[in-house]
């Protein structure tokens, strides 16, 4: 449990004392706010940039429990995959040299 606390998770005693167990339906949700800030229209996130190729079919991302559309994304194709693979290959050596904590920091920036 100490490891979870070290990672920023609250101790179980605090969770029981405050009952802060997570978001409550109907409560403000940071994920929903983030989607709204992007107009619920996303692209392909490659090398720190949102790519929205023109002329693509839009795909709806639906919430499984309700069927509600939460975002729209462009359909990808082999050219999108090639761009993503090239971007990943360009940084693969540097990424491999990072430890777990450093990788985690970059993923959560």
TrEMBL record:
UniProt-listed InterPro entries: Ald_DH/histidinol_DH (IPR016161), Ald_DH_N (IPR016162)
Cross-referenced Gene3D superfamilies: Aldehyde Dehydrogenase, Chain A, domain 1 (3.40.605.10)
Single Gene Ontology MF annotation: oxidoreductase activity
Protein name, UniProt field: A16A1 dehydrogenase
Organism the protein comes from: Pardalotus punctatus (spotted pardalote)
Gene name of the record: Aldh16a1
